[in-house]
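DATA SHEET
Item: assembly model
Revision: 1
Owner: S.N.
Input lines:
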Amino acid sequence: MKKSLKERLAILSDAAKYDASCASSGTTKRHAAGSGGLGSTEGSGICHAYAPDGRCISLLKILLTNFCIYDCAYCINRSSSNVERARFAPEEVIWLTLEFYRRNYIEGLFLSSGIIRSSDHTMEEMVRIARELRTTHNFRGYIHLKSIPEASAALIEEAGLYADRLSINIELPTDSGLGRFAPEKKPEGIRRAMGELRRKIEDAAEPTLRTKKRRHFVPAGQSTQMIVGADGASDATILGTSARLYGSYGLKRVYYSAFSPIPDASARLPLVKPPLMREHRLYQADWLYRFYGFEIGEITAVTADGNLDLDLDPKLAWALAHRERFPVDINRAGKELLLRVPGFGTKTVNAILSSRRFRRVRLEDLGRLGVSLRKVQPFIVAEGWTPNRLLDRADLRALFAPKPEQLALF
Amino acid sequence: MQTIFLKGRGDFEEWRAAARLLLLNDIAPGEIAWRIAGKGDALAGFAEPQQLSLPAEKRVVTVPPAFVDLAETAVCHSDPQRFDLLYRLLWRIRGDRHLMQVVSDPDVMAARRLEKSVRRDSHKMKAFVRFKEVASGDPTGRRRSFLAWFEPDHFIVARLAPFFRRRFFDMDWVIATPKGSAAWDGEQLTINDEPAAKPDIRDDADDLWRIYYANIFNPARLKVKAMTSEMPRKYWKNLPEADLIPDLIANAEAKVRQMAEKAASQPPAFHARLRARHGQAETLEAPPSGSWEALREEARRCTRCPLHCHATQTVFGEGPQDARVMLVGEQPGDQEDLSGRPFVGPAGKLFDGVLSDIGVERAGLYVTNAVKHFKYEPRGKRRIHRKPNEAEIAQCRWWLKQEVDLICPSLIVAMGATAYFSLTGERRRLSEVRGQVLNMTEGRRLLVTVHPSYLLRLPDPVAQQRERELFRDDLTAIIQ
């Protein structure tokens, strides 16, 4: 008997939750007032709800179907799993997207799919949904499509006309890991797809000779996701892969997804609590690489095994290992150095740079800016403040590390 | 003491008019009492006791745009002190034009806090307004009608109404709040600052949304604090999904335990059928062994050295299989790595230019590299080329040898030291062999020249031109 829409919505959203991305930002600014349709994207994304897992819900994130011919060990939808299967008709996905959007539940659609029949057949259905949303229904909201591995170039080209973002998951940080857990997925095929997309995006960004206009093609760029903790890769390996992906394919984001137990899981995988703190530290390190001028090697060299310190954020861990670089005088130091002070974010650094043109900045000023004084004090010199010997204390780390927790007896 | 009565419902113009008059009359912040007009008070601005007027000589009050931006937003805050604070800032800006840039100043900071709070409330309103469908008010029945009830902290309805109009353009809607309401009917955006009453409505679509919310939640990643910091409880009462939260949290642990206890079961029947079909497909595709196509296919899957894990793809040689001349470069670069074809980046463009100078068609040549994968170092959004080491060159020499054996060229051009090393096994300074034509086995000749990217790296345009000519002269050897 055919499952009801509600039943299928339950199955196909449950199956989609392992994709971490829910971003709806960074695309072109547009709205329906010009076109008379529905929807807008105005720069920053909007999180319309938060689930108790702390993740934002910005998009209707569903699979077209969770039938799949691939057998990736880490995936809830792999062909050898006994999860309940279902599929939507393209019209149903369109209807759900529009009705959810009208009620302001979502910013748009994030559509992915298990692979049925062939890559091209699956991709074609997904492209059709995006095309009809844009053309028939005049939908101006956000659309994120997952590229199906090995889908033809023409389909990706068309998908890029309607989607704000395309993504294809690298899944695991090493080729050998992917070989072990996802035998049908070809790492070089995934990289080739990313490279192809980068070239198309760059071509579209060139103004055309005649109209001098840039073509509209995947304006929010491409992203990918890596599973953390399923194979034995260290943080240094993971971050090294991220750096290569950012450098090679101009990715907007690499998402890290702590491997989380799935129903009917393969026995080869660790069925433990997902390493959420590790995932968090990886995001912090990723940020340091992209926005704070750190090299991956600097961040991961702090520990011997190449894994980030779980107790300390990576910038603090780096600072503690490089005390000779501190204290930094916040009234004189350049931006690059200020960005390396633990406890300073980019906003704080800009505020300091702006204020000190007119006043000497004091420790109290930082307090008012919302900076944690306890954290920055040992590392800076401010008007009326020098850390004296605080930096030389052997137990400096203990001042920051979390208090040891008493283990539960049972 | 001046007492100023304002309606105080987020109207910036109302405050601005009053503040301007006060400032032009040099009335200090301490001499003003800002009051919200209650019922019975004459509305807006200056009731009888104030005898203020614009001074006779025209004086313009100019303020930095940053202040106007800040004040427009902060005035929407519900804090009764906001008018006083903003006027004090305005007063101080007269004497200190840079005050707004002193981010650490207590008044600036207090105003920024108000601004931030209003922005946050606005953002949350964009996020948490929930429309419910009601009977259409459109006589033609073409436009559907929706109604939302929301409870903002501040007076932000007028600020946000245009956002909702731009977004929900093709439907009629009303957003009602205790701090005013907004309505759109396709032609007119109507704003009302009177408090509205909470309507009693329900919408069946909410059930679908609740199903989605419950299922997109991952019970193995419970992080309640992260949720409540972004979706504070005060908003929950108007969110259709929020009453699911306590149960989702309470049952999370049991759900995860269930997953862990249930061991992997036997794969479903279609899994075996898929396996069988997959095996067949693989064997069908291979080209005949010994051919150039088979060699290229094999090279695509090359794992002889670790470079393949980092590069996008193998960049194999390209050109007619009966080519008389084979040109060998060092390794693919950024563009070659992306497109999978040799010599298509900046060095390739230069190479093509020199070929056309001497009237040689590239289509008649076989062009390849000593190393088939791109070796690089990521640097932010770019990749920095790195020289391949001897081990990598040695591993890849195997492919180059196969190419030479298959193409059988009478002349090979080694462009750069890496190509020379790969072809001869000799480590020589390029300047020692450059321009020479050496004899190889099987009557083959080897011409040595520079790599075109060497020309691109020369900073001096004169030197670059000179070297380009030398390179061109070297290449003329391929015409004979």
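QC remark: The mean pLDDT of chain B is 91.
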